[in-house]
Amino acid sequence: MTDLEDLTARARAWLADDPDETSRAELSRVLDGLPGTADDLADRFAGPLTFGTAGLRGPLRAGPNGMNLAVVTQAAAGLVGWLAARGGTGPLVIGYDARHGSKEFAERTARVATGAGREAMLLPRPLPTPVLAYAVRKLGAAAGVMVTASHNPPQDNGYKVYLGESLGGELGAGAQIVPPADVEISAAIAAVGRLSTVPLGDLGVVLDDDIVESYVEAAATVVDPDGPRDLAVAYTPLHGVGATTLAAAFAHAGFARPHLVAEQAEPDPLFPTVAFPNPEEPGAIDRVIELATVTGADIAIANDPDADRCAVAIPGPQGWRMLRGDEVGVLLADHLQRRGVAGRYATTIVSSSLLSELCARRGVPYGATLTGFKWIVRAGADLAYGYEEALGYCVAPSLVRDKDGITAALLVAELAAGLKASLRTIGDRLDEIAAEFGVYATDQLSVRVDDLSEIDTAMAYIRTKTPGSLLDDAVISVEDLAPENDVLILRTESARVVVRPSGTEPKLKAYLEVVEPVVDGDVAAARERAAASVRALRTETAAALGIW
Q1: Is the pTM above the cut of 0.90?
Q2: Which residues are catalytic?
Q3: pLDDT value at position 52?
Q4: Where would one find the signal peptide in this protein (predicted)?
Q5: What is the CA radius of gyration of the chain?
Q6: Would strands 259-260 and 205-206 be described as parallel, antiparallel, or unpaired?
Q7: What would the mean pLDDT of 63-79 be, rounded to a whole number?
Q8: Tens of pLDDT along 74-114?
């Protein structure tokens, strides 16, 4: 049998078991187009989607290497079977965003759960991921599923899995899965037989708005009830599901309703006004900055489409600019510490090292973890706060043990309102932190690829031709976390480079940091020197990866 004949046989076997008429028609068209569609067919059957940094995620298309009803049915059956085998107690709680297929995938998950004899609870409508993470703990669930592709392009969808306390333990209650659970669930999914034999029940319990109101009330407690509230905010959910929940949380906390970017206010799975629905991408927050300028807002805030991330922009002498995730991360840590919030403050190995210095000088427990909130929230039972440079912040681990763009936005608003009441700004506070600790300038070199082998080539290149110096300073340490983790860390006395493949997108990422002391209180001059150094470091890193 030729390779194409084998591929065609596997595709026809999949087609015969696919429960979705639309997917069957799609795959039939690909089969009818052979041999011209052979590459397309091979890609669809290159392998099943696997659990990565954030569970399943991939393009909406027929076949095992895509997000579709067949893959979701198999994933749900494997997950429910694993929960039963491990003795997980409680219901399966399911949430979903407004992407194409999300509601259908959520409802199929619920029906698989009830068909297997486990209670299913479905959130009432498309809602932010943090609401699902909150509900897992609030409702004593065995696990939770969130159908979302977060900030990925419109053609994608995904499937995040959270564990309840019975299987996740104290640190993993309401958190995303980590090894060995991900490997075990993958094995359980692979062991599912024909989909036509998977029993389907009803939808279970469709929850009402009580769970959303409970989340909103809990979210509002992250701010001091007696603090200043005079603040004008411009906001966008980037065509996602955050607007209603964020507005309710702001109102419950006593803030004025944010000015809303009208053309991005309603959920739209096509994300028509942005190239990529990710606040980090160039141009993504242009419209909310325009709105902030027109309305005279004090700050601008953007959530990503599932509202677990939070972007912040502030006005300055050169106009509005979006703060880096590391800037917001340290600002919120500093704010919580000044409020007297005790406990461990954690971030990842790719985030700025400023948080470790902040904690060291103040005698506050610190934690550094691998990339991803599934690791950050497991930094310790005493966790008070965690953040990652990719705009993710966990400001209330007792409520949501994951990144939460709603509570982060509330805490940013509290900080900005307090500074405004004392005739200061977030920019002023950043300068004060720099004057005390030095300028920690960070940047990222991110390369999107069409062929994942390009990432392997670049990682091999820098490992075999590791530079001996960066910015004319000797590299004093090289830390290679392979084979457990594909991460390489280079350090000089005043700079650091961390290189790794993305866990959620076809990207190679290099995280850059330069530390520049402030001389004679001149923060502006130190920022200029640091910016120039980061630009040079970016060029040197690209060359070291062989991608210049």
Answers
A1: yes
A2: 150
A3: 60
A4: none
A5: 24
A6: unpaired
A7: 97
A8: 999 999 999 999 999 999 999 999 999 999 999 999 999 99
Kindly tell me the sign of the dihedral angle through the C-alpha atoms of 364, 370, 371, 373. negative
Give me 515's structure tokens.
């530390």
Q: What is the pLDDT of residue 452?
A: 85
Contact (CB, 8 A) for 198 and 188: no
Q: Which residues pair with 445 in a beta bridge?
A: 510
Angle at the Cα of 178 from the Cα atoms of 175 and 182, rounded to 5 degrees: 115
Q: How many CA atoms lie within 13 A of 215 on its CB side?
A: 27
Q: Computed from CA positions of residues 393, 396, 400, 406, in that sequence, does the dihedral angle turn out positive or negative?
A: negative
Cis peptide before 35 (omega within 30 of 0): yes
Measured distance CA(366)–CA(17) in Å, rounded: 51
β-pairing verdict for 383-388 and 392-394: antiparallel
Mean pLDDT, all residues of the chain: 96
Tokens for 78?
């494997």
Please name every residue paired with 345 in a beta bridge, in sequence order, or none if there are none. 366, 385
Give the chain's end-to-end CA distance (angstroms, integer): 44
Instruction: Report residue 349 as tokens.
Output: 């190995």
Distances (CA, A) of 436 to 346, 364, 493: 20, 17, 19
Cis? peptide before 180, omega within 30° of 0 = yes
At which residue do the structure tokens 């595709």 appear?
A: 11
